[in-house]
Amino acid sequence: MSADPADDIVAMPLAGVTGVDHRATTPVEEEVIGLFDDLRTPLFRYVLAFRLSSHDCEDVIQEVFLALFQHLQQGRSRRNLRGWIFRVAHNLALKRANSNRRSQQKQDASTFDEPADHAPNAEEQLVWNERRLRLLSVFDALPDTDRYCLRLRAEGLSYREIAEVLDISLGSVSEYLTRSLARLARADGR
Predict the structure, then answer these.
(1) pTM greater than the 0.85 cutoff
(2) Which domains does the chain have, with CATH numbers?
């Protein structure tokens, strides 16, 4: 075990796949570890949108990077690896969420920690909470694809990358985002 548990998440599966000591890394392992370092947090936030537990999210992320390692080891395309990673995460998270639902495991309804609020008084806190709940209820009422588009866009993916991740047209991405943002703006009184 290394000082950084995140290193073990990637290094252990890679050592198991390659059969070599995880401290002696290959260029592919280095590339996967670099992508893991860059994308772990945005992927975790995205996978949380599927209302998975933190443990399930970590499992999905580990599966994504193991799949990436195998993908690269087999000499497959390196075109838009970021989009590829998000698409694999999307598919694995959907599969995990459906599996959890089928097995009737109870998931925590709120997967997001509420940000610390430094509101100077109770009235401002109440207004902020009401706004937050109103926007969350509108967000939760959006169709799945609309929510996925918003989440991916919030993670900084381009329209083209979102289209690839969700396997939809570029025009559909634009339509879903425009429609969703308009609904949220109306709910926010803008």
Answers:
(1) no
(2) 1-106 (1.10.1740), 120-190 (1.10.10.10)
CA distances from 134 to 113, 121, 128, 140 (A): 17, 20, 10, 10
pLDDT tens for the chain, residues 1 to 190? 444 444 444 444 444 444 444 455 788 888 889 999 999 999 999 998 888 888 999 999 999 999 999 999 888 888 889 999 999 999 999 999 888 887 743 434 444 445 554 545 777 777 777 888 888 888 889 999 999 999 999 888 899 999 999 999 999 999 999 998 889 888 887 6
Please report where in the chains the tokens 């588009």 appear, as a residue.
149
> Torsions phi, psi of 21, nearest 5?
-60, 130
